[in-house]
């Protein structure tokens, strides 16, 4: 996978979120990510996702596969997003 993308977001010089994805055919596949819980209005995970969407657009990909949810509970983070 020559174009693996790792997005890392920093806040005040410290990493607070990082996500790994790779393109395959017409899809960007989200593989793994981690975010630090932040107080206030900072959502580092959303910033990383937005950067991955922009990366996919640059490659002219048509889909972004974020994986699946393991629950139909609306409070599940990925389901909510």
TrEMBL record:
One of its GO terms (molecular function) is acyltransferase activity. Residues 3-68 form the BioF2-like acetyltransferase domain. This is GNAT family N-acetyltransferase. The keyword Cell division does not apply. Its EC number is 2.3.1.-. Pfam families: Acetyltransf_6. The keyword Acyltransferase applies. Transmembrane segments: none annotated.
């Amino acid at each position: 996978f020559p174009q693996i993308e790792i997005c890392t977001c920093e806040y005040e010089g410290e990493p607070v979120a990082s996500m790994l994805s790779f393109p395959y055919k017409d899809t960007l596949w989200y593989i793994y990510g981690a975010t630090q819980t932040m107080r206030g209005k900072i959502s580092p995970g959303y910033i990383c996702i937005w950067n991955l969407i922009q990366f996919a657009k640059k490659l002219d990909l048509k889909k972004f596969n974020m994986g699946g949810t393991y629950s139909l509970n609306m409070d599940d983070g990925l389901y909510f997003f």
